[in-house]
Specification:
Layout (H helix, E strand, L loop, with lengths): L1 E3 L5 H12 L4 E5 L2 H9 L3 E4 L5 H8 L4 E4 L12 H17 L3 E5 L13 H10 L6 E6 L1 E2 L7 H7 L1 E4 L10 E2 L1 H12 L6 E8 L5 H12 L4 E4 L5 H7 L6 H12 L12 E3 L3 H17 L1
Parallel strand pairs: 1-2, 1-4, 2-3, 4-5, 5-6, 6-10, 7-9, 8-11, 10-12
Length: 293
């Protein structure tokens, strides 16, 4: 049986659906019974646990062949990342108590970066799980293509793509969440010992210009890139309600300055099969359906 946290998200959901399609038993770990109803209908066992509740999480992990760890993302963390630390402490305690045969952890590109930034929350998680005496795979995916969802409205309505990734012709490692779930399903069923890192990105890296062209194809209208200047980010993020924008700013710096990347520029990373055009077309179609609802 495979115990899956984060099952209501895109990656955890894709992982669970792939396992179910392969005839595997899945335990869906959710915050409340309502969130688990659709997964129960698909045949999943349901376990109720908050990621910060070590006792409930231990029970949810008990008897599992493998556990998938996908901690909640905190985009506006307090200094020092206390929110992440609370979850990490709970997860470590639960794993030590339940002792599944193996663990698959969804980490991120940049988990090995030496400069503090928003992704340092995953660095902390990797360092904690590296110390437990269980086989652990750290799956480090690239920037999610689905982050382009935030660009659909402006691309559609004004033909503009506001980009924090820059310059506009720089190629960035990205990946479709569907491909993360597919690879996760393969990895979690494997047998391994010790700790291992698996990096994942799409076959082609993506520039903001590429993203604009993908929107042009999906929207059938011109779309241009407008760079959001670095010296405006802090004021902009604060105006949007963030209290501590510097970790997010430093993460963007890391991508733009290339100190967040895969160890060899992606030459040895696993490659996903889903294209940027497929993802953007689906995002646009979904947004149009929502508008008509």
């Amino acid at each position: 049986m495979f115990a899956i946290t984060g099952i209501t998200g895109k990656v955890g959901g894709a992982l669970a659906r792939t396992l179910l399609a392969n005839g595997k038993a899945v335990r869906a770990i959710v915050r409340d019974q309502t969130k688990g109803a659709s997964w129960a209908a698909l045949g999943c066992e349901i376990a109720i646990a908050e990621m910060e509740d070590a006792k409930a999480l231990s029970a949810a992990f008990a008897g599992a062949e493998a556990v998938f760890i996908l901690p909640p993302s905190e985009f506006d963390p307090e200094p020092g990342y206390p929110e992440a630390q609370k979850v990490i402490d709970s997860v470590v305690t639960a794993l030590k108590t339940a002792r599944p045969k193996r663990v698959l952890c969804l980490s991120t590109i940049g988990a090995d970066a030496t400069e503090d930034n928003l992704l340092s929350q995953r660095t902390m998680l990797e360092e904690a799980l590296d110390k437990i005496e269980l086989p652990v795979t750290f799956l480090r995916p690239a920037w999610f293509m689905e982050n382009a969802l935030w660009d659909v409205a402006t691309a559609r309505d004004s033909g503009v793509l506001h980009s924090f990734l820059q310059p506009s012709d720089k190629k960035f490692p990205m990946i479709a969440t569907k491909d993360i779930g597919i690879l996760a399903a393969e990895l979690i069923q494997e047998d391994w010992t010790g700790k291992r890192v698996v990096e994942l990105e799409a076959a082609q890296r993506v520039s903001p210009n590429d993203l604009a062209r993908a929107f042009e194809g999906a929207l059938n209208r011109p779309v241009k890139v407008e760079i959001v200047k670095r010296d405006t980010w802090e004021e902009l993020f604060l105006s949007q309600g963030m209290k501590n924008p510097m970790p997010r700013i430093r993460m963007l710096d890391g991508f733009n300055e290339s100190w967040i990347d895969f160890k060899d520029g992606g030459r040895s990373s696993t490659k996903g099969a889903t294209s940027l055009q497929q993802v953007v077309a689906a995002l646009v179609a979904g947004a149009n359906t929502d508008d008509r609802a």
